[in-house]
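Complex 131.
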Amino acid sequence: MYNKLIEEALKAKNNAYAPYSHFRVGAALLDVDHNITRGCNIENISFGATCCAERVAIFKAVSQGQKDFKAIAVVSDSQDFTFPCGICRQVMVEFKIPIVIVGNCSGHYKEYRLEELIPFAFDNFDANQVL
Ligand code: THU
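Predicted structure with tetrahydrodeoxyuridine bound:
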């Protein structure tokens, strides 16, 4: 069901800018209008300025006016499934991306609900308690 999304993430990986870690990551974000936005990791010599593939895809789509998403896929060159980092999971919470597809370099994948990857997340509801 998510083969196409994984294929797009694998294509995105080819554009990764990862001269420091040599760990190439690709992401593909499916929105409610069935568009797919790709992202790759973009590193920086000031390591903290690096941006993960998932956030590149999410920020691209949001900057283009889309805020409603169905699923995001992530892959790397590894045969292991690549899971999103904690910061990316928090950004996925912000935009309520319900499904996360973790893939490997051969195109195999597993599907998770975001709640499984970041249980008890800090969300708008928590922040609004004090307002
Ligand atoms: N990276 C991602 O792009 N996504 C993740 O979820 C994990 C980490 C990138 C950041 C950095 O360029 C490289 O992988 C090594 O950490």
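The mean pLDDT is 96.
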